Amino acid sequence: MIGAVTILLAVTALVLAAWCGHAAYRDQPTKDWHFIGMAVVSVLGLVQLAVGIVQLARGEKPDQGTAIFVAYLLGAGLAVPIGAFMSLAERTRWGSATVSAAAVVLAVLEVRLFDIWGGTGG
Amino acid sequence: MAETTSGTGRDDAAGQPAPGRRLALGQGPGRLLVMLYGVFTVAAASRSIYQLIAQYEKAPLAYSLSAVSAAVYAFITLSLVRGGEGARKAALVCCTAELLGVLTVGTWALLDASAFPDQTVWSYYGAPYLFIPILLPVTGLLWLRRARTDS
């Protein structure tokens, strides 16, 4: 379960990164549609956090330790919302670039989360 | 950008930002830098805190250096957010220190691998972190240089 959510989040994060990167390339700030995209990714992050906590509560153990797993879960949940708020304050192409970078960070965190949990298990 | 570095002394009125308005370092491209420095502050700090507590004996030098890098990242992030000429100079010093740190630690870890049984954020010149640790100070220095001449 956590493996599937992780893969889904990594893919959607990369799509969001490409989309906002395209906006930055065209010298445009983030628009309403971008924020809807960020909201979707953020909600997925919350879903992942919930699934992760439920699996820990069931007594399953991540391969590389519970503390690291929870830290990465929290970081993954916060990356895109923080980027979104920064792009609200920065109504230029650089706001779009910031969201794009935040989404890339999220994708990297998801790859690490996948390793930390221990592959597809769970 | 074309302005020569001589003659931009702080005493000439033209080089000063308008009164009551700080030189903005965390806007435009600076906003992206704030985000990336913020990420690396959190990453390096949480990593070093965890490792210093959980496995200090394994590689004390590497973990201590990670803690130092976290402090440098935190200071630069705050300077960029705060803005102003003083913060710009402080951030210039820190970005230079950061660049030297990446180059020194990267080379040191290559030459004497036994000193580093575990990696730091700056090992292999930041390759495990997509080379961002070595690209970030260079970008930061360029931005801080430009922020002065643009004001």
From TrEMBL, chain A:
The record lists the membrane-crossing segments as 33-54, 66-88, 94-114
Protein's UniProt name:
Integral membrane protein
* Taxonomy of the source species: Bacteria, Bacillati, Actinomycetota, Actinomycetes, Kitasatosporales
Keywords assigned by UniProt?
Membrane, Transmembrane, Transmembrane helix
From TrEMBL, chain B:
Q: Which UniProt keywords apply?
A: Membrane, Transmembrane, Transmembrane helix
Identify the stretch(es) annotated as Disordered.
Answer: 1-22
> Which residue ranges does UniProt annotate as crossing the membrane?
32-50, 62-81, 90-110, 122-144
Under what name is this protein listed? Integral membrane protein
